[in-house]
């Protein structure tokens, strides 16, 4: 387990932008996953079969497209979203409303262990904190704050998913909703969001296309923070004047075989957060490929 303070360089930059960002984050799993561009998927705990299929299928599509999937590990839509990302061997972030070691619901204990091993589990509550009703609406701001956009698949007229969507909108993030049947009570929350200005989407590709410019803007922000050049260009294997020292160090540490993050940390001496930021820039520039949490130079 890791403990991140808000002034820690590994603390996720997107979350730090919230006015009420948690001062401490307890983390199980790969801390650098918190820097990966994420889409939140939220919805009803009592979702329909169709809603569960949508959440799992869309999460699978997002993960295959290189996005992380964030959710709250609750029953229903949240669980389906995490499972979809894991189906595709993609990163997923579970934000708990309990202590970092307390799965809720309890039947998700195995899922939480899987996410910690292959993604990341976070909580602002110390180990051993039991579930309390007020904690779950509060944790929703972290789900929204870690994500560039929030997708609501199914939600009742009054639900935690709508709280997450409102918090996402308040933070200046994109909000998407999947329309449903007028006879489905679990679709009423989505229809309310659509009336209030959320973007109607009918396929994962629409969400990905809408968020691509936002991801590029995030990369620009990271470039500025780390003083990385605007374009890494067609970086050769020898030192290039267009690459700053850290980017060059990372490029030389990469090979033609997939390399996990912890090896890159050891080879470069950079922090996981610094590497994640530079890798994002290089991925968007077409220089690096990420598969199953491992990185390699992209074949020419």
Describe the structure.
With 300 residues, this protein is an alpha/beta fold. It is 41% helix and 16% strand. A nine-stranded mixed β-sheet has the order 1-2-6-5-4-3-7-8-9, with helices on both faces. The chain has a three-stranded antiparallel β-sheet with strand order 10-12-11. Strand 7, helix 6 and strand 8 form a beta-alpha-beta unit. Helix 5 crosses helix 6 (160-170). The protein starts with a strand and ends with a strand. The model is unreliable at 228-241 (pLDDT under 50).
Q: Main sheet?
A: 9 strands, mixed
Question: What is the global morphology?
Answer: globular
Q: What portion of the residues fall into strands of 2 or more residues?
A: 15-25%
Please state the CA-atom Rg, rounded to the nearest Å.
19 Å
Question: What descriptors fit this protein?
Answer:
300 residues, 11 helices, alpha/beta, nine-stranded mixed sheet, 41% helix, single chain, three-stranded antiparallel sheet, 16% strand
Summarize the structure.
This protein has 300 residues and is α/β, with parallel strands linked by helices. The protein has eleven helices and twelve strands.
């Amino acid at each position: 387990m890791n403990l991140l303070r808000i002034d820690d360089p590994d603390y996720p930059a997107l979350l730090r932008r919230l006015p009420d960002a948690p001062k401490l984050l307890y983390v199980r799993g790969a801390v650098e996953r918190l820097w990966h561009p994420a889409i939140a998927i939220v919805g009803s705990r009592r979702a329909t079969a169709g809603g569960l299929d949508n959440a799992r299928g869309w999460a699978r599509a997002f993960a295959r497209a290189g996005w992380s999937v964030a959710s709250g590990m609750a029953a229903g839509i949240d669980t389906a979203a995490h499972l979809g990302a894991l189906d595709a061997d993609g990163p997923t972030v579970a934000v708990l409303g309990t202590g970092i070691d307390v799965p809720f619901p309890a039947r998700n204990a195995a899922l939480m262990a899987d996410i910690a091993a292959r993604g990341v589990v976070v909580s602002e509550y110390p180990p051993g904190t039991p579930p309390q009703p007020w904690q779950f609406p509060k944790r929703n701001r972290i789900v929204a704050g870690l994500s560039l956009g929030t997708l609501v698949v199914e939600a009742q007229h009054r639900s935690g998913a709508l709280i997450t969507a409102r918090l996402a909108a308040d933070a200046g993030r994109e909000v998407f909703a999947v329309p449903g049947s007028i006879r489905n009570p679990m679709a009423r929350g989505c229809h309310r969001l659509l009336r209030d200005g959320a973007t109607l989407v009918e396929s994962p590709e629409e969400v990905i296309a809408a968020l691509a410019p936002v991801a590029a803007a995030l990369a620009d922000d990271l470039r500025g923070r780390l003083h990385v050049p605007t374009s890494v260009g067609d970086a050769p294997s020898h030192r290039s004047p267009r690459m700053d020292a850290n980017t060059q160090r990372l490029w030389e540490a990469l090979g033609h075989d997939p390399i996990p993050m912890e090896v890159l940390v050891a080879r470069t001496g950079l922090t996981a957060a610094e590497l994640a930021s530079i890798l994002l820039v290089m991925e968007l520039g077409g220089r690096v490929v990420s598969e199953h949490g491992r990185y390699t130079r992209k074949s020419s």
